[in-house]
Amino acid sequence: MLWLYLHFPHLVLDHIRRTREDEGALVVVEGSGQKVIQACPDARSQGIRSGMRLKTAISLAPDLGMVRADETQEARILEDQARWLYRYAAHIVLVPPDGLLAEIGSLQKLYGGLPAVWQTVEQGLNERQLNAWIGIGYTPLSARLIARAGKGECTADKGHILRSLSQMPLLAAEFNEKACTRLQRLGLNTLGEVFDLPPGELARRLSPELLAYIQKIQGTRPDPRTPWQPPHSFRQQADFVQEIEHTQGLLFPLQRMLVELEEDLCWRQQDTDSLRLVLKHRHAEPTRLQIRTSGPEHRADHFLNLVRLRLEQHSLSAPVISMVLLVKRFLSREAPSGQDLLGETQDLNEAWHTLISRLQARLGDQALRQLSPQADHRPERAWSASEVLRKTGTPPVPAAELPRRPLWLLKGPQPLTEAPVTWFSGPERISGGWWDGQRVHRDYYIAQLSSGQLAWVFRDAREGWFVHGWFG
Amino acid sequence: MSELLNTLMQDARVWQGHRHTQTTQPAQSTGYQVLDNQLGGLGWPRGALSECLLDAPGIGELHLLLPLMQRVCEEGKSVFWLNPPHTPYAPALAREGVNLDQVVLIHTDNEGDFLWTLENCLRSPVTGLVMAWPGKLASREVRRLQLAAEAGSNVCVLFRERRYAGQNSPAALRLELEPGEQQDLKVNVLKRRGSWPGQRCSLAMAQRADLSFRETTRVVRGPWSGSTG
Fold it and tell me: What SUPFAM superfamilies would the database entry show (chain A) (predicted)?
C-alpha cells in the first residue's frame, strides 16, 4: 500500500485567514496566552518565530492578529480537511493534530499515475488556500516522517523513499527523548544506521515499543489504521479574529461556506431545504437562525439571497465571534420530469419555489398561508390555513357537493347593528360541535343591508344577531 | 401655429383626441361581456395596475374577479391575496372552481414589507393575479407599484376606499364600484389608459348568493320584526 501524508504546518491560521477579507500577520498563541505556537508567513517575515514570547511578537508587529489555541477547534478544522480529501481518496486516516493520511496506491490507476494524484491533491490544497507538506511512503509512518521533514517527492520508487528515510537524522524521526539519547549513545545518528542493524541486535538492545516503532516505519510489522468515515451532516464554522458587529460583515465568509455547501451537496447528489445558522457571541447565548427554502435546493447564490434577506430582518444582538453553518436534512435530488418541449413546467415550478422562499425569508413562515376546505358543518371550522410548503396537487372538491357560502368570512361573528333592508334565503340551520365542546346552534340567513352589502347573518340560540360573512 | 406647437405635434408627444385608436395593450378578459365592451373589448390590463374603489365589502367585488381567478388557476399560475380585510372562505372558493393550491394568502405587518412583497409577486413569472388591500397609500407608492407591475405581465388589482377616487393615481385602470338596486354591481370607469373614461355599466351579481329568483313573496320572511322591530 502506498500512503500519502498531508502535514499542515499552520492549519488554524489557514482556516482563519480564509474567512478574513483583510490581510495581516496572524499568530496562534497557546492557551495561557504567553507563547506563540504558530506564525503565518506574513508574521514570520516580520521576524516572529514559534516559541517566541507573545510580548516580543507584539513589539515586532503591533497590529498582530491573535488566535488562542483550542484543541476541539483544531480537531474540527482537521476533519473539515478530511471531508474535501474524501472526494479524492476513500481510505483516509486522521492524524491529530495536524495530519491526514490517505491511501493512494489504489488510486494511481484511476487518476492515471502518481503524478496525477499528486497534482489533484495539490490543486485541492490551492483551491482552499491551504499550506501543506506532502509526503509519500510505503507505510503510514514513513509517509508521515517524510512529509514532516518536508522532503516529499512525487515518486513511488522504493529505493528512493528508503534513501530519503535513511538520511533523516534521528531527531526528525520522532523518537521520544529517552530513545533518542539511547540510540545516540550507540553511535547512531541517522535513521538509516538504525535500519542497518540486524533485527536480533535491535530487539536485544532496545525496548519492545521502540522496536515496534522502527518496524512500523520499515513496514515489517503491520500498522493498521481505522479509516475515517464522513459524517451524515454538513458543518462549517468560520472563526473571526475581530468580532463582527454588522450583518453585512457575515456575508463574505458566508458566501464561501455556502459555496462549500453547494460542492458538498453536489458531491452527495442531494439537496436540502433547511439551513441552520448559529452565530456565537462572546458573552451571550448564541443566536440560532433557521433558513428554509420552499423546495429542495443546492445552489449557493440562492441560499445566499435567502440568508441575506433573513439577516436584513435580523439585527445582531451582540458582536459575533464565530459562525456555524449546519445542514442535517438532506433530500434526494429530483430528476427533472414532466417537462414539455420548451421546458416551461420546470421553470415555473422553480420560480414558484424561489418566490415563496424569498417571501418566507423576509416575512416569516407564518405570514404565508394556503387555504383548504375542511369537513365540518360549522363555518369557522370548515376551512383551514396551513403553511405554504409545496404544491400538493389534491384534486379539487366537486363544486356541487359544497353548500352556497359567502366568499368573505369574518374573523369572528360581528354583531348586526342595523335591520337589514331585504331578506333573501333562509333559515339554514347549522347545529353541531356537541362532540368537542365548541357547540354551535345557529340559523343562517342571507340579507341585504342598507349599504347594499349582501351579508350572511345568523341568529344563535341566545337570540343574538350576527354578521358572519359578506357575499363579495 | 407656433413653431413649438408644431414640433410637439410632429413628435406625437401630445395625444390628440380625434385620433382615438384601438390600444394594443395586453389585457385579460374580465369574463363579463358588458364590462369588456366598456373597456374597449380588452378587460383587465396586464403588466399594469388596476384599482377598484369601493366603500364596503360584500357588494360583489370578488365575483368581479372570479372569472379571472378561475382562468389563472387553470393556467397553473398563482393568485396572491395580500392583506385581505377578511378571510377568503375556502369552501366558497372551492365551490367556485378556484384551485386552492394556487391561492396564497400573505399578511404583512408594515408598509415596507407590503410594497416589497407586492413587487416580488408582480415580478415573478408564476403569478397570474395579485389582489391587494393596501390601506393608505401615497401616490408616490402607487407609482412605485405601477413600475413593479410593468416589470411583470400580471394583473394586479388594488382594492381601495372610494374616497381615494379624487386622488390622482398612475394606475392604468380605475373602477368605482357601487352596489345597485337589484344586488347588481354598478361599475363606473374613472380612468382607463388610452381612452376616455366615464363609461358606466351594471353587472348582474345576484348569482353570488343564488338569488336567481327575485320574487319577494317567495322569500322566507325573516323573523326580524318580531325581535327588534
Answer: DNA/RNA polymerases (SSF56672)
